[in-house]
Amino acid sequence: MDPSISWFQPEQEGPAKLLWLRIWQTQQELDRMNINEGDIDIESFTNVINNQNTAVMNGKLDKSNNILPRRRRCDNRASTRFISRNPQKVVGEFGGCPWRRENYIYGKGIIGLHQEIEHFYSYMSPTELEHQIRGDVVQRIKRIIISKWPEAQVEIFGSYRTGLYLPTSDIDLVVIGKWSNLPLRTLEQEFLEKEVALENSIKVLDKASVPIVKLTDRRTEIKVDISFNMSNGVKSAELIKNYIAKYPVLPKLVYVLKQFLLERDLNEVFTGGISSYSLILMCISFLQLHPRPDYLKHGNLGVLLIEFFELFGRKFNYMKTGIRIRDGGKYINKEDMQKEMIDGYRPSLLCIEDPLLPSNDIGRSSYGILQVKRAFEYAYSVLTNAVHPFSQYCNCQNNSILGRIVRVTDKVVQYRRSLESSFRHLGSPQISPIPSPKRSSRSLSSSGSVSSFDESGGSSEGSESSSRDISPNINIPQRKNHQKNINRNKNSKKINYNQTNLVKRKKPTTKQ
Asked: How far apart are CA 116 and CA 226, in angstroms?
């Protein structure tokens, strides 16, 4: 019987009942979020099972009901958590696929998926103005820190330094200096006095393994994380940039995968997902050990994406196998990896050797990796079905194949457009401390799609539970003038992609 509607005896009431019911609800919510797209609210569930907000703690009556913390309010603009309940509210204005280009003839099946990934990467990549806006945020925060500690150094790391950031990604900063005690509260007070952050947005996580100060910029609503004396972050960012230069397909896969996890709230370790750094290292390992290295230069991005989902959603043995990317990359036995770890630490379920510090396990805090695995597995099933020649979704001209697993919400599109309209005065490229990625100059059109100033209209080649189970072209209003008056020019330049069967990947060398 469903515990949420069963009757409890008086002797069954108490903190243990509340604890286990909430654990049960959390697991059910994760299952439905990733597989069945349920949108159950934990607070409403709690009200159903128990109308009283009292519990017994240490023999005393506690009315705060603090046995387990309530689910934090979701402030993720990219979240598609409620899309099955109210698709009009989440993606009603732009259809969820603003990367699709008008008057563009998409191929069928795996070819169309490749083209969509190219266009998704082009659309979600930061524009010059967006890069400058973030640079302005960094400069304002840096001035406050330097004014307080003139000898301190402020460095940028993370996705902003590598260029692999989504429109709603945060900025990671590290302050390097000499203190007997980290000045977390002092920095918090400085930000409060200077009124640089939104009200109640400053949070000091002094008990975390890496103490940080979190805030949301008042002008741009961009989130900023500030840590102290963590020089490895800068080195990791430079390492990733080297792999980007080696594997041109890496950023395109990362963008799709980051969005895939972000909209499912699986992009943070503390929400049951994996970190951005772990995801990138998984992508690097996938490319390093690909059985056809020559295919990575001009291969089909759709094939590579499906192979990634297949590997980490179905094939990879998380129980016995770890990931190493240094020295060309390989799979390692966790028992052998444990010998190199300090203090007898046991490798975690998602075991990724730190390329800069081999005794460190990057994935050690990813307790929700099995939820991520299930999401990858479902995405594999959805995409392989969609690209099949006999599938009703195979015609990418009429149905977005990529949109079956990835959506861009209206809130994200509106946020980008509001930033563009509010900060057009930031025209000086010197404002940004980090050079902008070398991409074509472009802006966001009123329809939400990207308009490139050097676009020729051809392919851009060379330049994130499972799917929500709602076709991007069903019961959702399409963008104005979208796909209805497509100019089917028979003389359009077509690109000959390799439409071979999916390449079988190498299995981990460790005995399964």
From this structure: 35
